[in-house]
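Entry 14. Two folds queued back to back today. First construct below, sequence then structure tokens.
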Amino acid sequence: MKIQNLLAKSFLILYTLSGTNLTAGSYSLNNWDGQSKEDAFGQFRARLENQALPQVPPPQPTQEDTTFNFPIEAVQDSVFLVGAASRTITPVDENGNLWMEPFEDLNHNGKYDPPNPNNPRAYSDPFTDTNGNRKWDGPWFAGFDPINRFQFGGRKTYYYATGVHDDLWARALVLHTNSSKVGFVALDIIGLKSDYVQKIQERAKDLGFTEVIVGSTHNHAGPDTLGIWGPKKIKIFNGLMAYFFGKPLDIKVTDGKDPRLMNYIVQRSVEALREADQTMRPAQAYFVNADPPEKYGSLLLDNRDPIVFDKQIVTMSFKDTEGNTIGTLVNWVPHPADLGTKITQFSSGFPHYIREALEKGNFTVDGKSYQGLGGTVVYFTGATGGCDPGDCIRDESGKLLPKKTYAKLQRESELAASAVLDSLEKASPVSITGLSVFTKRFMVPLTNRTFEEIIQNKLVDGALYVKENNLDQKYIQTETDLVVLESGNRPVAQMATIPGELFPEISVGGYLKDTKDCWIKIDDPNRPGKKRWLKIKAANPGVPTEPVIKDHMTADYKFILGLSQDYLGYIVPKNDFIPAPNIIKWGKDCCGNKNPLQHYHEALSVGPEMGPSVANAVIGLLSKYAAAKTPCTPSSTPFVPNPIAPAKVFGPEP
């Protein structure tokens, strides 16, 4: 019986691994590409020293890359100008074929099999290394790690796209007053590190932007743009030791970024910014706070207690003097992840459908037919930490739609869009007279060993820092921005950028505060007619909670632009933060692990100081704005990490 129990536990662990998101764990430099250790180290060192490796140039611009020559001189005296544009970033050639380096399919399984350094006899498909980076570059999916991506002594290490369901986009919006000009770019990708954000900003520098905000929708059905979803290998014994004893989880991993795609994303983002800039025209603004409807099912699901949503869909839309919509920026919170792990095609997920619904209309909700706004819709994710789309969504007839389907995505997107369109019908125009921009760069203590190893091994671009009086403690540098749209002397909209997946408690409040009881039993809001245990006690009840960001915003329309300017994982409230040994054995607090998702997110976070650091940085900018009441120019040059030294020393104050 004991043997049967042990086998059962082993199968449970393997099953758990099948849904584990390997953005954490103990990664190491490894020999995935079949070269010698000396060659592997030479490649690693070349990346550390920032040596230029040969790269395939991006495809030549197509007809949609037309240069626009809008007569901007005719409207330069106007107070407020707006432009919008979009570019596809889907990695396909002119025939619609996905980019991937050619390979020879030795075992005729229709997929690329990478080398297995621990099993030389395993299938290893030869490939043509067109960009000279000594690894196979293909369209690896980001955001999920189903079991067929691991090597438990086997060869199933692939999880890349085989087609395209709908395009991925770079969508740009430019706002310009007499004093400031701000560009916004939203990308249909999992996330973008600050290094590539700075490349976009630098290549658009000649346009004279006060600031360029680059955000990611956190799309889980797009390509790996961080580098941590390439082929992986983990030993079963190593996994068991990690689960039962909290041992380090040694995962061998190949960088999943395709250099050509990364360059293409930068190029297309700048193209979209240029077109938006060159097609600016006088505009009036319309702002709304819309609540998602619940008649056909809850559109949001909180996967970690407390049950808190930053649920309002905050929107600003701009029309020209002829009444035509130029562009619309939508800010909402759910993870674009509800297609699950069985996808085979790239898609931009529900952001695609909500943009389609707002631009083109042609859908019905509760018997009402909706027309689209036109123009270009730009979608920014919000305080998405722990927040997923709802499970139970019904169509017009009341029929429950199957989970993890495009039909469900489309329906929930149209339900959300209906709330925005209904609100915009009643909105009055607002004349924008001012645009203020503030920027804060700051250091955050890095306590997650996984993040440190990922950065040191250059799977994710970035740099580590140390204080001159404590060389053992590593720090990571990031930033937040505040953009304020004003009408007269009144702030109409305040927009804060967040360098990761912010938990909603930090944006709207509702922290766990009970110091005595751990759990209460309640009706499950996500499963009508059933009960569930609700956690009410914080993991660290004596730790002060972060200040609530939106409580300090004074504008009527409060935008939280998540995953913008950088991507540093989950931003978890400090009073409920329990460090996780690794992604298999998650943290266990004083209440135990009745719900296994209670402390999963800490494995994918910089550390417990990330929440207070971000909240205080945003609130500091809000205070600076309140004191100044005038536009200001942020720091002129973004920080440039030192790519050679493992850590850069900075002064006594981070």
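Second construct, same run, same settings:
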Amino acid sequence: MSGSHDGDARSAHERTRLLGFFEQAPSFMTIMRGPEHRFELANAAYRSLIGGRGEIIGRTVREVFPDLVGQGFFERLDEAYATGEPFVGEAVPIVLRSKPDQAPETRYLSFVYQPTRDERGAIDGILVVGHDVTALKRAQRMEAAVRLASGIAHDFNNLLAIIVGNVELLIEHLEADTYGRSLAQLISSAADRGTTLVSRLLAYSQRQRLDNRVVELGAVLEAMAPALRHLLGTNGTLTLEVARGLWPVRVDPAQIEIALVDLATNARDAMRRGGRLVLRADNVSISPNGEAAAQMGAPAGHAPLRGGDYVRIVVVDDGSGMMPEVLASAFEPFFTTKDFGHGAGLGLSMVQGFIEQSEGHVGVVSEPGRGTTVTLLLPRAPAPAIARSSAASSGGAPSDTTPPPTSNATRAHILVVDDEATMRRHVLTLLTRLGYDATVAATAEEALERMRAGERFDLLITDVIMPGGMNGRELADAACKLQADLRVLYTSGYPAEVLAERDGFAVEARHFLTKPYRKQELQARVEALLTA
């Protein structure tokens, strides 16, 4: 009898040991029995994934997950049980509530439904094993969005370079034509807004350095209030509530203004019959736990909320609010509920990108019919000299701080190389009007052929990225071998830091000009190089 007891003890010990491995497995795992898929076992990773749903052992999957109706999971379980064929899902989206009182969020799961069989070979259950790959999926989506945003920004910068430059010439030409000049200035203003949008795309993709300064956010908000009231129109009212003694924050003033305009625009669109927008700012100290992130509605896959001192900006509207499935996708790039042509779906994702690049946090809480609350947290900064907002300091108009160029005493000969025909013509026109002799070439090889034929140039202006053959750096290296005293100015629709990060292209600032640029910027850079 003692041998039987020893065997039973060993079996019990082995079962306990195996259940311990099951419980501690990093993959989420559960076993369901019968055609109703009644939970028999579920490990810690599975319970963590599904959130607070009470005791699930003994309950059916449909009882535990009423929010999964219509998402296809029940049907796949039924099919696996009926056919005995396993189902394998890769990065399958699932809209799930982590807690009953929280809005659902979209997660991505890679998993297998593996039918189990009894001693007679009959199917008696389903083993579910998988991983939550939300973070990886989000990273892949963000990388794709980053690449798209960066590419779009580059192409738009090339187009804007032509628009900005030619409208400058048009304004000069129409000096005596008041009406025509006013139309040209409207075009110039629109081009400036386009340039700002491109800057935001690059900042969103984290491929443009932010102009971070220590800022007093109370002054920023107060300076913006008139513009925000104008944006809301006659149907909306704005209430500004700024606490006294706001801590300073380190942020790009222009980007925070644009983020608030985006949020106010979303609020206006949600309050189609009118409403109230409240903009609050106060100081808050946050403990490092998950509760604060959950309360502010931090998006799935967000950077962990660090404890510390923050200045909190809260934007509250009493508009239509968002359905749970819309809220779950609100931060996804290019997701929009607006009609075609009325929104690119980049507003909230750009706000998130900018805030997180500023080492802050963002969250949204919304319910249908009860409005939306957006919370921005920006970390407290030391308080040296404080910068006011760009709107406060300049009235919203860009200032031209380019120093006046020196006189071009000598008639320099400049070689311009760009694969875009319109850009070549544009730069040729600018340089000619500035008094230089200019020659254009479409390719690096064409430029080098001119130099090999004996033409001499004082300056080479070349685009950095050119399809086929040599790029701008390779052209400059080859050209300087033919003419050692040749000066070089590089241009690109990408900022220099993007080229340095992506292609290892590093160059002194005085040898680089980002498109779009204005005539005065080009003249100042050219004359600085020619007189160096």
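Quick look at the second one. The CA atoms of residues 162 and 423 lie 6 Å apart. The longest strand covers residues 105-117.
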